[in-house]
Amino acid sequence: MPDEIILRAEHLSKVYGKGESAVKALDDVSLEIKKGEFTAIVGQSGSGKSTLLHILGAMDTPDSGSLTVEGQDIFSLKDEQLAEYRRRKAGFVFQFFNLLPVMTARENILIPLSLDGKKPDEEYLNALAEAMGISDRLSHYPHQLSGGQQQRVAIARAMIAKPAVILADEPTGNLDSTSGKEIMSLLKKTIRQFNQTLILITHDNSIAAQADRIISIKDGRISS
Predict the structure, then answer these.
(1) I need a labelling partner for 88 at 20 to 30 A (CA). Which of 73, 74, 102, 109 fits?
(2) What would the mean pLDDT of 147-155 be, rounded to a whole number?
(3) pTM (2 decimals)?
């Protein structure tokens, strides 16, 4: 389906704290994401972009508003179903990689499937590893990998369950500029290759400029 809307957020609001110390992290945010689209969300520190990403990934809940992913109303789900959504429908890429040190690269990649009791599609795993340039690193442990290689493993982990959407939180923030550029180039190429949908938050305008669409957030509201 051309221009299929895969994610729709409507009137999301989130307040932290109470009374005079209350902070409005999100203020009536609505957006739509199309399948296969690469969207960058930009804003200064404290603008609400991380809160928005966490809500889109169901790691946090809004005070009001709704989130629909592939036609499913996410915040009407019970806790167990929400955990299922995070495993199956949302792939996460974090700034600090979040790999388990006692597991090999291969085992780290397969965590979302292992938690679901699913066997890996070996052909897809090998294609992902090849696309990320880590085919010869799958038996290595995180401490045997460079920062860039660890982030490649983390991206493969985010994609292994073929989620509806990949959510990347400053994915180059913990890398030097050369590794960061490599990771962005690989990430873009790989989501295109496997027709994945990417929402990435960044404060780096050069990274945002590579996206199909840029959404700017200021003081918890979409400014452009």
Answers:
(1) 102
(2) 93
(3) 0.90
